[in-house]
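explain this:

___
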Amino acid sequence: MNYRLLDYFPGIDTFLSMDPTHALIRLFLILLGFLFIYLAYKDILDPLIILPMGIGLCMVNAGIMWMPGLVEGTTKMSSMFLDPMVQTAEEHINAIQIYFLQPVYALTFSNGLIACLVFLGIGVITDLDFLIASPALSMLLAVAAELGSILTFPIAVGMGFNYREAAAVAVIGGADGPMVLFTSLYLAKNLFVPITIVAYLYLSLVYAGYPFMIKLLIPKHMRAVEMDPLKIAKVPRGEKLAFCVLAGTVLCLLFPVAAPLFVCFFLGVALKEGNVPRLIKVSDEVILNGATLFLGFTLGCLLSVDVVVDPKMFKLILLGFIALFLSGLGGLIGGLIAYKISGGKINPLIGIAAVSCVPTTAKVAHKCAHEVNKKCFILPYAMGPNVAGVITTAIIAACYCSIISKLP
């Protein structure tokens, strides 16, 4: 048999065999993975999800080789990581025997379990004090911060997406990664991979991007408004436990399509308020961190060159930016209204915390306030609209899933 030198280096062989444009995109993705790793190492972007995503991104695009095709005797370019395009039960069984990440994808991603596990962990680290003490303010700010989740829908339809796809994209405006994952699986499984990737890429950039919006739109003297955390009424643990049980039950009754997410979130809150330390530790340190690790790594591995060259990818990138920009803008507008109504006693930055990337946007609001006034400690106040944003995003996603899924 005649062997070429490149037969011993199939990764390089696939590079040279690709269309030049695709090869350049593949190289760009590898370099982008390196950049993500660097930004995570420098703590510029959230390392918890960006570091594993960067590792997966650069290595899945480096590790492309010739694999057997679906038709016997044919070959295709693929990696040994996973194949998200399998459909039939037979294809799933075959894929699990070949791709090392396929079991993780099939058993946790394609059914939404990974989103539920993340929600369980988020519930364990969630503080309900300000939400229960000031429910009206928290919910009104959360509604204002859903501007992107609402307005992105008609924009996406105008850009050529059908109603189901547009609704799945619009949920990016809620800045709730598990919710985006869950909704896209329910409404637009064909776009699940690119929508989820775009959502998590942008959610990771929120930590770096929203401070610029805050500094551009909110004057320093407003950012510096002090809010005494000691003035937040302390809510007894029993009341918080009762609230999460009742709220969870009512929300599941009204929006059963999102019940798996509601039950996992409020289960996490119940474990915290019910003071079950062993389960709290497992949910936080093992389930949340483990689910986030596999979430970031698997998303990085899904971002291969064939996904990026999809003609809809650029539109999704643009729509993702529009959704999160509008939601941030809506949150700040809500915060400014609260500032005016309160006579300047409410720091308007708690409005952007209602964009429900828990607890990232609450930390962003607190950090931006603390930068201009070292005495300013608004994090406990920001957590109220932050948690309320989780609830409003889930409600909007449930409405989309219930109503849009019935449309032709």
Remarks:
- The CA atoms of residues 224 and 374 lie 9 Å apart.
